[in-house]
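Example with several molecule types.
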Amino acid sequence: MTANRHQAGPDLHAVPEPYDYNPSSWFQRVRVSLVAAVGFVIASYMALYQWRLIGSVWDPVFGMQSAQVLDSDVSHMMRRWARMPDAALGALAYLGDIIFALAGSTRRWQYRPWLVILFGLDVIPLGIVSAVLVFCQGALVGAWCFLCLCTAVISLVLVFLAYDEVWSCLLYLWRIWRKSRSLWQVCQAIAGRPSQVATEAAESVIQRRPTHVAATR
Amino acid sequence: MWPRHAETALGMWLMLSPFIFRHAADDVWLWCNDLVSGFAVISCALLSYLAAASKVHLLNVAIGLWLAAGAFMVPGDGVTPALQNELIIGVTLMMFAIIPSPSTRPPRAWLDHESSRSADPDQARA
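Resulting structure tokens for the full complex:
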């Protein structure tokens, strides 16, 4: 009986404002996780060097400068603070991007906002800060690291690919706040608890488009 | 259920860690911590397959926090590979454990809410 009731189900390809595609679709999220996987492999490779599990680090542009960056005082300071090499910390952040990108349904901007916010926090502020730190390495360390610059670019690409879903989710939460003026209702919505206000807010956010068009994006 | 598979794999790695990182035979604390935590992680992950215990995987968040905290109990320069292993496993475990079990389906509460609305047109119009 329950299974039959669920067969009709909600429209999982609903397109939220302000986009003409579903930012929570599998296409969008698998794309993010693939890019993050590249970052994860590169960061893990650099962590292997910092653990001395490999003897050198590949750099076709700056040569030995990569090793200088990875063995710099700044890197050692980060290691003392984080209790692990900074490249391993980066690898964990990329792994988080992959995990949080792949979890949740294609309407998680409404059903699991906590997951989208967690995903956004992992991708956007952490990505921007790490990218800025890497781009500052020339001034801080006096040397450049090709693979570090690659990961910085990957972080910025991830920010670009991920911000739309976070924006739609925040827009949905903002509509709940405007309708209810209740922080409790917003917190309930973030936790993924259904309510009449949340349903109305979601309906106001969803774009009225033919389902087959939305499903193809 | 893929987060539970990953937690099980992490639990197995944790139980193998004393042999991989060659803990000293007299370091009973580290042996116990890895073996007991690993067993607990696997148990919580597998118990979550039962409908009645589907939220038990959240206990793995606490175990992950416990494992990660160990590395911060020693000075920054004294973190051994074994402690770094626990830290990395702990953080990874927390990331997986926070993901609900039917991770790619809408939550049951929302499915019930939507179907009750479609069954009751008055409520849907309200």
